[in-house]
Specification:
Radius of gyration: 22 Å
Number of helices: 17
Number of domains: 1
Largest sheet: none
Oligomer: single chain
Order of helices and strands: HHHHHHHHHHHHHHHHH
Distance between the termini: 39 Å
Helix content: over 70%
Strand content: under 5%
Number of strands: 0
Amino acid sequence: MEHVAEPSTTAGKGGVAPALAAKLKLATGFRRRGMFVATMSGVAYGNYTAFMTLAMTMGVWSVWYGADSGLSEFSTLFLLGALGAATTDACSAVWALLIAIFKGKMGDVFRSAASKPGAILIGAAIIGGPLASTCYVLGLQSAGSIIVPISALCPAIGAILSRILFKQPLTPRTLTGIFICFMASVMIGSTGLADNAPPNLFLGLTFGFLAAFGWGLEGCIGGYATSMIDPEIGITIRQVTSALTNLLVLVPLFAFIGKADAFAMIGAAFTDTVAMPWFAVAGFAAYFAFMLWYKGNAMCGTALGMSCNGAFSFWGPFFCWLVLGLWFGIDGYALAPIVWLAAVVMIAGIFIIAVNPLELFKKKG
């Protein structure tokens, strides 16, 4: 009888220990793939930011933001910000629907939307779309790309909320890594204060913080829901909900307050052949940014997934510099040396969250 218990404790062939080791290796590999997916969502988010900002400088948008637009100050800030977010979300929703139709997933979209996880996703879409995304655009229009790293505080907010809502663990190492990522974002954001600060700087920063909170909450809820729903189906539900809520609720509301014709402006925006191609590019990038974000959070947990995604605090200014600064020659998008240093610091923070450095040294020893 003495040797009966040995198979459960031995590391020998056929024992439990090899199976546990294999399971741990599989989980680790899945977690690392989730990190890569979440990081790529940040890259896509940088492209989304750059091309949306570019589109809002062209065609009818250049007229609306001009001195003789006839729009009130409220409409210039809030209505145009909401309309820019709505136009991008609508383009993203069209891409999501086309991809779902091409892959034969439209039936699953309707079935999932009617389920409990689908209802959770719809709630997350309202938080992250009409609310957070509009705050993000308002921040960009008020203070420029400095608010990108401010909005990237959403990983820290998401990690805290995931600990409260879903009891996901926050180890000292994870908290250290999140703090390093936060400091990297501060380093990037400080460049906007160096020279000529935008006149609406603090208003823009406020919108950036509101966007960070909204996305932090959405990341928790959306990551939880997409652990039960295909991310491509989930993002279709998310983008369609966000676009419809923006176009049918938020834009008309701001237009009513600002005494503007909402539906005339929506029509002008969607029929503008100069700006719309760039909104279509921004919408395509937004589709992958949010889809990979949801998927990454579901694969490796909200805290880690949002920390990897939080690298968009670098990718946002970087692609704005490439697209608006270098490609289109628009001034004000050059990157200071501290931004490149902050990118390295952020990579170090993500590495510390993902891997215990002490374990690496132990393996070498």
